[in-house]
């Protein structure tokens, strides 16, 4: 981690500049403290690292050694004192580890022999202390859902939510703890369905079915957020060849929408009760993946970004913060409001490119060829008064993706449009 000193000198806060948090690739998570300062958790080698941005630049704290291979960052929260907790899990569900205020990263749960954990989740309870949830799945498909809370003395308490192996699931269930109506609930996803589990008066837990499908099943991390009587949840849905991102509202009734037609869920938050979802999409070409970040709401995607989105979060004053994985590493951005710029692009077999940038007034668009393994800059196109642009490339001789990138001069956010079908 010798790069830390260099980055501290180079990545000083300034307006309209992308800031490289670390010259490394994911996994990584983004969270925002109450004062608006960001936290980024990432793995460097075998070290779990927490980056914090302050007036003097980014500072870095080693939270401990990851206890094994294949780490996945399952959650990052910041309490009202600005202290961070990070939940890490093994990609095949063989351990869970937590770093919390005053305690380095340590294993907090291991499954019994022949069992595995599903994607876990981390939240703050109503006392502002970290709480995490996970599901255990046996080889016979029986599952048990648990949530662990911390008391004022620093002791963990395990709460068994489901019993008797219910619900049976062909895949390991995902779970997301969330404060809902002042109490800790857990949203659980399993084969073809999702349930909101909440505590009952007198003890025990009861579930509200959020979603059920005959055609697909949830997979991966789950997000949940609540505002008043409304509980929102989001996850990745596998259905045949389709990989969608779903958004569900549970209020008087339960409603689910596809908000990203093809992508992987990253994050969910509410701003004034209105949900926004972060995700990433990709195209596979020449045995490699080309990524695009996607921002969406109940009406669908409203903006696309150049790079793999790893974090999208609300900040005080209506601001938004983003974390992208790019060829330069982990890059952090902040916008004064919800992003409103959207780039569109089309291309034909002759190499003629046309598109537009909605929400921008003048400037240049950068055009690239993407072959999956090589990214080639083609040149710039100037925006017309109506936001449109054109560019003439030579006809591609092999399957080629094109991407148009508009760098917002106010934030340096790289808004983009990546073709989803190669041109040849």
Could you characterize the architecture of this molecule?
The chain contains 1 helix and 36 strands. With 424 residues, it is mainly beta. It folds into 2 domains: 3-337, YVTN repeat-like/Quinoprotein amine dehydrogenase (Methylamine Dehydrogenase, Chain H), CATH 2.130.10.10; 343-418, Immunoglobulin-like, CATH 2.60.40. Strands 10, 11, 12, 13 and 14 form a 5-stranded antiparallel sheet that branches. Strand 30 (342-347) and strand 31 (352-358) form a beta hairpin. The longest helix is centred in the N-terminal third of the chain and has 8 residues, at 3-10. Mean pLDDT is 94; it is low at 2-16.
Could you give a quick summary of the protein structure above?
The chain has 424 residues and is mainly beta. It has one helix and 36 strands.
What are the main properties of this structure?
single chain; 424 residues; mainly beta; Methylamine Dehydrogenase, Chain H; Immunoglobulin-like; 2 domains; five-stranded antiparallel beta sheet; four-stranded antiparallel beta sheet; 36 strands; 2% helix; disordered N terminus
Set down the secondary structure blueprint.
Elements: H1 3-10, E1 19-22, E2 28-32, E3 38-44, E4 47-54, E5 57-65, E6 71-78, E7 84-90, E8 96-100, E9 103-109, E10 116-117, E11 121-124, E12 130-137, E13 143-150, E14 156-160, E15 174-180, E16 183-190, E17 193-199, E18 205-212, E19 217-227, E20 230-239, E21 242-250, E22 254-260, E23 264-271, E24 274-285, E25 288-297, E26 300-306, E27 308-315, E28 319-326, E29 329-335, E30 342-347, E31 352-358, E32 364-370, E33 375-382, E34 388-392, E35 401-407, E36 414-418
Antiparallel strand pairs: 1-29, 2-3, 3-4, 4-5, 6-7, 7-8, 8-9, 10-12, 11-12, 12-13, 13-14, 15-16, 16-17, 17-18, 19-20, 20-21, 21-22, 23-24, 24-25, 25-26, 27-28, 28-29, 30-31, 31-34, 32-33, 32-35, 35-36
């Amino acid at each position: 981690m010798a790069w830390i000193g260099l980055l501290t000198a180079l990545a000083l806060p300034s307006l309209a500049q992308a800031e490289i948090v670390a010259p490394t690739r994911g996994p990584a998570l983004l969270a925002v403290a109450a004062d608006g300062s960001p936290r980024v958790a990432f793995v460097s080698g075998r070290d779990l690292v927490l980056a914090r941005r302050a007036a003097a630049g980014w500072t870095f704290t080693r939270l401990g050694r990851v206890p094994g291979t294949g780490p996945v960052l399952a959650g990052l929260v910041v309490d009202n004192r600005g202290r961070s907790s990070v939940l890490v899990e093994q990609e095949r569900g063989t351990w869970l580890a937590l770093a919390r205020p005053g305690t380095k990263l340590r294993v907090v749960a291991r499954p019994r022999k022949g069992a595995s954990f599903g994607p876990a989740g981390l939240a703050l309870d109503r006392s502002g202390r970290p709480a995490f949830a996970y599901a255990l799945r046996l080889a016979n498909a029986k599952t048990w859902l648990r949530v662990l809370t911390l008391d004022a003395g620093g002791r963990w308490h395990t709460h068994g939510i489901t019993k008797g192996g219910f619900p049976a699931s062909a895949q390991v269930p995902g779970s997301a703890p969330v404060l809902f109506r002042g109490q800790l609930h857990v949203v659980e996803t399993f084969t073809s369905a999702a349930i909101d589990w909440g505590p009952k008066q007198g003890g025990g837990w009861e579930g509200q079915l959020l979603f059920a499908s005959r055609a697909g099943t949830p997979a991966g991390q789950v997000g949940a957020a609540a505002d008043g009587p409304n509980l929102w949840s989001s996850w990745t849905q596998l259905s045949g060849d389709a990989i969608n991102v779903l958004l569900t509202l549970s209020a008087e009734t339960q409603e689910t929408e596809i908000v990203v037609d093809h992508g992987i869920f990253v994050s969910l938050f509410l701003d004034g009760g209105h949900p926004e979802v972060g995700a990433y999409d990709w195209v596979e070409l020449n045995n490699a993946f080309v990524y695009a970040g996607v921002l969406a709401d109940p009406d669908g995607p409203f903006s696309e970004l150049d790079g793999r989105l790893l974090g999208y979060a609300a900040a005080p004053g209506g601001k938004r913060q983003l974390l992208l994985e790019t060829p330069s590493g982990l890059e952090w951005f902040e916008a004064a409001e919800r992003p409103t710029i959207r780039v569109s692009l089309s291309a034909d077999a002759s190499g003629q490119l046309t598109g537009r940038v909605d929400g921008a007034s003048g400037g240049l668009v950068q055009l690239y060829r993407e072959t999956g393994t090589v990214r080639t800059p083609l040149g710039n196109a100037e925006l017309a008064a109506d936001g449109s642009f054109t560019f003439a490339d030579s006809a591609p001789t092999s399957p080629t993706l094109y991407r148009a990138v508009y760098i917002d001069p106010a934030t340096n956010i790289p808004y983009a449009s990546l073709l989803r079908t190669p041109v040849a």
